[in-house]
Amino acid sequence: MLIYDIWFLFIYMFFVGNLIFVSKNKHLLVVLLSLEFIVLSIFFFFLVLLMFIDYDMYMLMAFLVFSVCEGSLGLSILVSMIRSHGNDYFQSFSML
């Protein structure tokens, strides 16, 4: 019964992160935090899955490397946007 509770927790975390990501947010920082929350829930899912099937954890190390790269790229975009526009509102950022 405990394993079903853990799976439900991972699915709940993933969907809450997606719900925050797709909702209308004004700030880029909230979107970046929701992406990191989604990555964290996927990491915990892989951790439990790999422990359950008794597999090596090298895949988790590669996943953590890519998630850290994703986080640092997001923060660099946030800093460059704040330096060029003065804030992190999506309304002040034009795609053209």
Automatic annotation (TrEMBL):
Transmembrane segments: 6-22, 29-53, 59-82
Catalytic EC class: translocase
GO biological process terms held by the UniProt record: ATP synthesis coupled electron transport
InterPro entries attached to this UniProt entry: NADH_UbQ_OxRdtase_chain4L/K (IPR001133), NUOK/Mnh_C1-like (IPR039428)
Alphabetically ordered keywords of this record: Electron transport, Membrane, Mitochondrion, Mitochondrion inner membrane, NAD, Respiratory chain, Translocase, Transmembrane, Transmembrane helix, Transport, Ubiquinone
GO molecular function: NADH dehydrogenase (ubiquinone) activity; oxidoreductase activity, acting on NAD(P)H
Membrane topology: Multi-pass membrane protein
Subcellular location: Mitochondrion inner membrane; Mitochondrion membrane
GO cellular component: mitochondrial inner membrane; NADH dehydrogenase complex
UniProt xrefs under Pfam families: Oxidored_q2
Reaction catalyzed: a ubiquinone + NADH + 5 H(+)(in) = a ubiquinol + NAD(+) + 4 H(+)(out)
EC id: 7.1.1.2
Function statement: Core subunit of the mitochondrial membrane respiratory chain NADH dehydrogenase (Complex I) which catalyzes electron transfer from NADH through the respiratory chain, using ubiquinone as an electron acceptor. Core subunit of the mitochondrial membrane respiratory chain NADH dehydrogenase (Complex I) that is believed to belong to the minimal assembly required for catalysis. Complex I functions in the transfer of electrons from NADH to the respiratory chain. The immediate electron acceptor for the enzyme is believed to be ubiquinone.
Family, per entry: Belongs to the complex I subunit 4L family.
Protein name stated in the entry: NADH-ubiquinone oxidoreductase chain 4L
Organism, as annotated: Bombyx mandarina (Wild silk moth)
The encoding gene: ND4L
